[in-house]
Model the fold of this input.
Amino acid sequence: MTNIYNQILQSKSKNEKLLAILLDPDKIDLENIEVLSQKINQSPTTHIFIGGSQVNTNIIDELILKIKQACTLPIVLFPGNPSQISDKADAILFLTLLSGRNSDYLIEHQVNAVPILKKTNLEIISTGYILIESGTETAVERVSKTKPLDRNNPEYALQTAKAGEMLGNKLIYLEAGSGAKLSVPLQMITLVSQNIKIPLIVGGGIRSKQEIQNVFNAGADLVVIGTAFENNLDFFNP
Ligand code: 1GP
Done:
């Protein structure tokens, strides 16, 4: 059995930063998986996240199996809803949208996911997911029908993250939304990371290697890159 969460904890204790590539199954051409996997293998990526707010295609199983042929990195589901669960992955971020007040994304989808998860051996990692306002409406906001938190109120983001930690979440994910105009403010990342004990994931709108470094320096333990790599497979080239 894998233990991806313990590895994340160990990395955090050693201050080793982690980097996840987010692959949206809707945007991936299965014919290109070999090249994509090769690029990932040549990059500093430590985890592959799979998911999206609204995945329409039904290729998640095939996508994961193809990646696994070419790549040994842990594959973690990052699902927008229970239809995106695949037993071919290694783990799942079992998300609850703490910033929103839509009960579907707070608990309904999670209840519906249980019978599906029971048939898998996925490692389940309880994750408090917090959407931060990022300049324009993002897919998460649209699909979840929730409002993001005020980007100028880091204290409230921290209060929300602390609630997740107290409820037993094992990770906190500060999310600006895929393709976000503005990424999560560094000052907010620092305040949250300094006041929670569990690892902190940050993603959304991070477009350069310098920005990744800034987000790590601010206190993120794991950074997620989706759009920047999707648009340019050579993103990580020196
Ligand atoms: C989205 O945080 C991830 O859930 C990645 O966002 O596509 O903007 O990199 P980007």
